[in-house]
Amino acid sequence: MQHAQDNLLVANCVAQLMERHQIPRQKHAGTLAKTLGLSFAQAHRKMRGQSNWTFIELKQIADAFDEPITVLVDSPKSERRPGTPALLDVGSKLLPCVVWLGGEVPAGGSPDYVAVHMSGVWRIYSPESAPVGIKHIVELIEIRPRPPETAHPAVAVVDDDGGRDANGLKTADTICLYLNDKGFDATPYYDAASFRKALRHTRFDAFVIDWLLGTETAEAAISDIRQTGNPNAPVFILTGQLEAGNVNESDIARVITAFDVNVLEKPARLPLLAAEIGKRLAMK
Fold first, then answer.
1. Distance from CA of residue 100 to its chain's centroid?
2. Domains contained in the chain, number
3. Residue among 134, 211, 209, 128 at smallest CA distance from 167
4. What's the chain's Rg over C-alpha atoms?
5. What pLDDT is recorded for position 275?
6. Residue 203 belongs to what domain range?
7. Torsions phi, psi of 259, nearest 5?
8. Could you report the per-residue pLDDT of 126-157, keeping only the tens digit for each?
9. Domain boundary pick from 45, 78, 111
10. What tens digit of pLDDT does each residue of 78-116 get?
């Protein structure tokens, strides 16, 4: 039990044992402290997977609940049930990950993370930031860094539309979910300022930008893109205001000519957008 990567797996097994015996999650650390004669802080670290477990401790726990110790010994990693691909919401980025899901969160439950199934994808949130919907317990999250040579093309999606669809997703989120499912590494940005900040220290391979960003157009942001270390990256402008006459077509035409960008009508047809991004990247 001395490998750090096993600590959280064992802690999950201990937590599941306690839940089977009707001990609420908020009392797990206290129960463990009493069972093993630990301080609350020591027990809390163990339940968080932050310290090692010994065989003697696991035997004490199993005996205290009159269960065999085998329920607390996780099978080898190669025999573990497979995880599920998901996206971890960290506020400004959606990180591809693999999760192990439990059942629905019980009334009054307060897990560290919850999973919500939206648009065919599991998405992971902290409970306080999760949208309305059926929430599942997240038992384990694995974030697996990709080697540089196999990294997926990075795409910045910039759209300040504050509306949400039936799944509680903003426009930028919906586009990112689809592109990530198609093999891209897409990150949403909800205003021009946060995008410009990211542009200073992140290299993107392609850009999807709404033409209207607050009180400005995308022209200034596109000009910034053309002055970065990847000035020839494909840029796709999205606009749903042409027919309504809320944008100046001559402004868009000037940007197309000056910066070699593409224009697509909103709502974006995501299969076509993904195909166009892939084609332009293949041509570079």
1. 14
2. 3
3. 134
4. 24
5. 93
6. 148-283
7. -120, 5
8. 888 888 889 998 888 887 655 454 468 999 99
9. 78
10. 445 667 888 888 765 667 788 888 888 888 777 888 999
CB atoms within 10 A of CB 250: 8
H/E element holding 121? strand 121-125
CA distances from 266 to 119, 146, 161, 272 (A): 19, 32, 11, 12
Burial of 120 (0-12, 13-18, 19+ CB in 10 A): exposed
**Residues 176 and 110 grouped into a single domain:** no
Q: Judge if 152 and 126 occupy the same domain.
A: no
* Shared domain check, 276 and 165: yes
DSSP state of 109: -
| Whether 91 and 218 share a structural domain | no
How far, in Å, are 54, 160, 174, 220 from residue 170 at the CA level?
47, 9, 6, 23
How many Å apart are CA 22 and CA 191, to the nearest integer?
Answer: 46
- Is 153 in the same domain as 278? yes
pLDDT band at 75 (very low <50, low <70, confident <90, very high): very low
- The rounded distance, in Å, linking the Cα atoms of 225 and 207 is 9
Q: 28 and 117: one domain?
A: no
Q: For residue 240, give the DSSP letter.
A: S
Task: Return the half-sphere exposure (C-beta side, CA atoms, 13 A cut-off) of residue 280.
Answer: 20
The DSSP H or E segment spanning 124 is strand 121-125
Cα–Cα distance measured from residue 86 to residue 98, given in angstroms and rounded to the nearest whole number: 6
- CA angle 227–229–233, rounded 5-degree value: 80
